[in-house]
Specification:
This protein has about 110 residues and is mainly alpha-helical. The protein has three helices and no strands. α1 packs parallel to α3. The longest helix has about 35 residues. The chain is elongated.
Length: about 110
């Protein structure tokens, strides 16, 4: 179960990075606020999973519970850093990379 939780944190982080960066590059930097909504939703899902998991491991040792709590906190850090990385990547791409889209001329 814990491996699944870690995987969800990593996948959620990639989703936040990819969607926030794409929205900001395609539609403008104010669309980065949509990434904040995704971030809040992902953190809320993480809290829900933490609560559900902690109730499921009632017979676990205190050390196992502490490790599980730290893993959920690590997921939150992964999610928060993913949003921060997408904003930094946006700034770097806007500053140093020129994106040119060329449309073919109409035939006829």
């Amino acid at each position: 179960m814990i491996e699944f939780v870690i995987l969800l944190g990593v996948i959620g982080g990639w989703i936040i990075v990819a969607s926030t960066l794409f929205l900001m590059l395609a539609l403008g930097k104010t669309w980065g606020l949509a990434g904040v909504l995704l971030l809040v939703a992902a953190i809320q899902i993480n809290h829900w999973l933490k609560e559900k998991y902690m109730h499921a491991i009632v017979d676990a040792t205190p050390r196992a519970k502490a490790i599980a709590a730290h893993i959920f906190e690590m997921n939150e850090l992964i999610l928060l850093s993913s949003y921060l990385i997408s904003v930094v990547l946006y700034v770097v791409i806007q500053k140093y990379v020129e994106i040119v889209i060329k449309f073919p001329h109409a035939l006829g």
